[in-house]
Design a protein that fits this description.
single chain, seven-stranded mixed beta sheet, about 20% strand, 12 helices
Length: about 375
């Protein structure tokens, strides 16, 4: 018997191919959610399946007490994509990657005046462990019955507020450049650049949580490139493994020493082999120009949808293939999601009033077209 901690839709999937899923009754669905931004190459990708099969027949686990060749290759790959200046730690999830970032920030802060405080934005989301919940700036994620929460985390409404409240105890600031659970809200570029400059001047670490917006989701390997900043620490997960559980924390500074941090399963042979393959495929998709074209087409479809339904939609938000539509009446949001499911297209919610889209990055023209046909039908039904 499962714990009662998910509000599941009454559907179960048994097969997938690209952006299409089939349930146990044979009905097909266009997946504009890709497992909450995970399956960047879609479902049942033949190349991914081949890597999984090959590695499973060779070696799955030896632990991080020994060298793991695909882990080293993946670290070098990510470091090169970041500019060749970052050290990598591999975990099993985005929350674990952010836990690593917390420890890095605390240790660095301790060595520079015993600073320990980490600041984030209200409306942020950084994970569901106790520490990452404590770092998440949304009250709904801080119910009393999970308390007490760890100390040392503060939240402010704006970047200006963060800058104004930096003090001698501030070790780091963590931000999502596009807030995934906070309404698909891209932060203001000039404000982010100002924050990066101020933190650098004061020797305070800047952490960007790219668990959802990273790995080409917004059009570049890291969204920080779009914002023209170089974070001290960057966290990844979701799209990095196309379904295999992997998280990563990249640090520009050498902070850890042996024994400071670890993971039994993090960075094993299987997940790092798959992630290396996924990164190569996504890099090729980007360099070929195909990713940018897919982004432009998806944005155009969304703009047309908003314009056609201006009575219920306010605007399109987001970057790349991390997109949202703000719904004027938040009470209508769940109805649209449910009607979309009935019509055979999967979409998500973000925050209180945003319809969220995280399609596979290699979404085909046919899948795109059919998905929006079904979404238009769902919206018309939701209006009635």
């Amino acid at each position: 018997m499962l714990m009662n901690n998910y509000s599941r839709a009454d559907v179960g999937f048994v097969r997938g191919d690209g952006a299409i899923l089939w349930d146990d009754s044979g009905k097909d669905y266009i997946d504009f959610a890709s497992g909450i931004g995970v399956c960047a190459l879609g479902h049942s990708h033949k190349g991914v399946a081949k890597i999984i099969s090959k590695q499973s027949k060779t070696l799955l686990h030896t632990s991080n007490l020994y060298n793991i060749a695909p882990q080293t290759r993946l670290a070098n790959k990510i470091s090169n994509l970041l500019g060749g200046e970052y050290e990598l730690f591999f975990a099993n999830s985005g929350a674990e990657a952010n836990e690593c970032a917390i420890k890095l920030a605390r240790k660095y802060g301790y060595s520079n005046g015993k600073k320990s405080e980490i600041i984030s934005l209200k409306n942020s989301f950084h994970g569901r462990t106790i520490a990452t919940l404590a770092m998440t700036g949304q009250d709904k994620f801080h119910p009393d019955d999970f308390g007490p929460y760890p100390n040392g985390f503060k939240f402010y409404d704006t970047i200006d507020d963060i800058i104004a409240n930096l003090n001698e105890n501030t070790a780091a600031v963590i931000i999502e450049l596009v807030q995934g659970e906070g309404g698909i809200n891209p932060l203001d570029k000039e404000k982010v650049q100002e924050l990066a400059r101020v933190l650098s001047e004061r020797d305070i670490l800047l952490i960007t949580d790219e668990v959802q917006c990273g790995v080409y989701r917004t059009g570049e390997f890291i969204t920080a490139k779009i914002y023209e900043i170089e974070p001290d620490i960057i966290t990844f997960a979701k799209g990095l493994g196309n379904g295999v559980p992997i998280g990563a924390c990249a640090s520009k500074k050498a902070i850890f020493t042996p024994g400071d941090h670890g993971s039994t399963f993090g960075g094993g042979f299987l997940v790092t082999s798959v992630a290396g393959y996924v990164l190569n495929e996504l890099e090729n998709l980007k360099n070929s120009g195909k990713l940018d074209k897919k982004i432009a087409k998806f944005e155009k479809k969304l703009e047309k949808l908003v314009s056609k339904n201006s009575d219920i939609f306010e605007k399109r938000v987001g970057l790349g293939l991390m997109q949202g539509i703000v719904v004027k009446d938040s009470n209508l949001l769940n109805t649209i999601i449910l009607k979309a499911l009935e019509c055979g297209v999967l979409v998500l919610r973000s925050g209180s009033n945003t319809l969220r889209f995280l399609p596979p990055l290699n979404l085909s023209k046919k899948e795109l077209k059919e998905g929006f046909i079904r979404l238009n039908l769902a919206i018309n039904k939701a209006k009635k």
